[in-house]
Predict the 3D structure of the following.
Amino acid sequence: MGGRAAIDGLKKMQKSAALLINENGEKTEIAADKLKPGDLFFIRPGDGFPVDGTVVSGSSSVDQKSLTGEPEPVYVTEGTKVYAGTVNIDGTLTVRADKGYNDTSFSNIIKLLEQSEKMEIPESRLIDRFMRYYIPFILAIAAAVALINNDISRAVAILVVSCPCGQMLVSSAPMVAALSAATKRGILIKNSKFIEKIVDADAVVFDKTGTLTSGNLKLTEIVPIAEDCTPELALAICDALSSGSGHPVSCAVCSYADEIRKSQSLPVINISELRETHGIGMKAVFERSEEASSIPEGEIIEFGRYIPADDDRKYDFSEHGTVSVLTCGKEKRLLAALCFDDTVRADAGAAVKELQELGIEETVMLTGDRETSAKKIAAESGIDTVYAGLLPAGKYDRLLEIKGRRTGVIAVGDGINDALALREADVGIAMGAMGSDLAIQSADIALMNNRLDNIPFIISLAKNTRKIIYQNLIIAMLISAVMIVLSAFGIITAVFGAVFHNVGAFTVLINSSRLIRNGIDTASEDKE
């Protein structure tokens, strides 16, 4: 049911209508599934792309988070590939369809999800295997006692005391206790694979953005280039330029400037004739400012994409993630570079270390982001292996490769682009509170509060639950064995057996309740 809802939800993400451009340049709205490769269609700001295609004219920023999971919009212009399911942000575009409606990136994701939906994972339950042998064994003993002693009452007593109340609670009671403990931590467990698969896992695969990181673009560093430009001056100018823009880079600048102003003052910058060029940046005329006397009044200042220019202005920002530069004058003199990147969650490193202590042999990051940024995040969080620049199908292929060399794989993600990995993994864990409905529906476990330390908690809880199940089985068997022996020798009658056989059930329940107490204690420690 959850898998079918996930697939239906994904289908709704692909735009169902398109503005077809005919030979006369006229635009006509048609059903998206009528588009054929080679057709031209028009995309307005805010429109989704109905099919995969190539930009023929225009430029814009495109939100590809649904496919790559990355927060930074991608600048597209003539010749750039665009994908179905992504959203145009600001400019207008004319696009040539490269694929039909049923052959897009989104369609391929749906096909893979439907394929994995049909794959059945065999589940074996400990108590089911046990009961296959227990019941015939008890019947045989009762029959043997009745024949040997010629006393049917002893046989009846054996049947009464061996009633499998305790045995039936062997696995169900610990599972209920585990679910209760998990719920108190904000963990939603949706599948019994929680016990059957997670305890054998030796690899955890993480998405990057929104899982190991916060998922929001942040200003991480200001690098002054001109001798007469300080970080404070560069920030103040860029803040003035960005204040009227809703672009993620502009929002990150304004947010950072607001934080800085809480502890220190920034130069007051006045500008006029502010203009924003889609995909390029901001431009304005600089007005007189005593706090920024190094920039002449009337000069054009620009803040936007980093494009390496002359040899004497080449700087290596490859380790800084996304970079935008501040320039001045007609010659575009470089004043400073502002570096942006996603930031690692505060609990990522500790969670990964705890996973390794629990026996996870390999931690992997699968991301649609560039390799430099991915490796930086991996180093900060302690991830062993990194695969970058992946679309959803690429993540799916990598996961299959990892499954081929590992005993069990846990996948952790939050976005639409993670749905395939969450479905295909032995256990899928969705970062639920901030994640998409599709990711949650595709996963076996949802972390409703997005705490990464809940992942090692889940593994530890699963291992403890299995341990309790084995303990319960031994307890139930020993108590039943003692009761059967006493009944066979006539020490316990059927009437007393009806009372005493509940001892096993109570013991199993008390032993299972330890999982609830441990969960409460752990949750309390975390709050403190």
